[in-house]
Amino acid sequence: MESTPEQSLPSSRTSISENGTTDRLRVVIAGGSIAGLTLAHCLHHCNIDYVVLEARSEIAPQVGASIVVLPNGARICDQLGVWDDILAQIEPCQNGLTWTYDGKLVIDSNSPRLTGIRYVWRIHERDKH
Ligand SMILES: Cc1cc2nc3c(=O)[nH]c(=O)nc-3n(C[C@H](O)[C@H](O)[C@H](O)COP(=O)(O)OP(=O)(O)OC[C@H]3O[C@@H](n4cnc5c(N)ncnc54)[C@H](O)[C@@H]3O)c2cc1C
């Protein structure tokens, strides 16, 4: 990755030790889920060294039926430059349906669509299967 002029300037990321060597800041990230991986992405783009430690044997294990991306998360993904890639793989939510344990529909709400109209960013869903 090429450094921008800003990245090559001395900053709080580096310090000069007593023997004159330059120490680089290295960040240890505990947890390789959404927060940890997002932080790793940001540090990578700031040219800051990091290591991600994940307790589980797998990153992003196959749990749950889908992932819902709410407007606040979508805005941050856009700021990080990854929203267009995500958008290509997900569908906008129109309605939110809630059933009882025995399959009776109790709520059929258009709140996902209204949220998109009011917050600019729509609610999107990615089926994990
Ligand atoms: C059933 C369910 C469904 C959800 N659905 C959605 C959804 O559709 N959309 C949405 O936006 N949010 C959803 N959420 C909320 C979302 O999962 C959390 O807000 C999000 O996962 C929090 O991310 P995080 O990275 O902070 O923590 P976590 O996802 O909890 O990740 C923490 C990570 O740290 C690891 N870890 C813990 N301790 C250590 C350690 N000592 N050393 C190393 N690694 C460690 C864990 O193994 C884990 O991988 C859902 C939550 C649940 C429970």
Average pLDDT, to the nearest integer? 82
What is the molecular shape?
elongated
Strand content: 25-35%
Distance between the termini: 34 Å
Structure description:
With 129 residues, the protein is of the alpha+beta class. The chain has 2 domains: 5-53, no CATH class; 66-127, no CATH class. Helix content is 30%, strand content 27%. The chain has helices at 5-8, 34-45, 71-79, 83-87, 111-119; strands at residues 14-16, 22-24, 26-30, 49-53, 66-69, 91-92, 96-99, 105-109, 124-127. The strands form 4 sheets. Strands 5-9-6 form a 3-stranded antiparallel beta sheet. It has a two-stranded antiparallel sheet with strand order 1-2. A hairpin with a 5-residue loop joins strand 7 (96-99) and strand 8. It is elongated and about 70 Å long. The chain starts with a helix and ends with a strand. Residues 1-11 have low confidence and may be disordered. The structure holds flavin-adenine dinucleotide. Flavin-adenine dinucleotide binds next to helix 2 and strand 5.
Short description:
With 129 residues, this protein is an alpha+beta fold. The chain has helices at residues 5-8, 34-45, 71-79, 83-87, 111-119, and strands spanning 14-16, 22-24, 26-30, 49-53, 66-69, 91-92, 96-99, 105-109, 124-127.
Write the layout of secondary structure elements.
Layout: H1 5-8, E1 14-16, E2 22-24, E3 26-30, H2 34-45, E4 49-53, E5 66-69, H3 71-79, H4 83-87, E6 91-92, E7 96-99, E8 105-109, H5 111-119, E9 124-127
Parallel strand pairs: 3-4
Antiparallel strand pairs: 1-2, 5-9, 6-9, 7-8
The protein binds flavin-adenine dinucleotide.
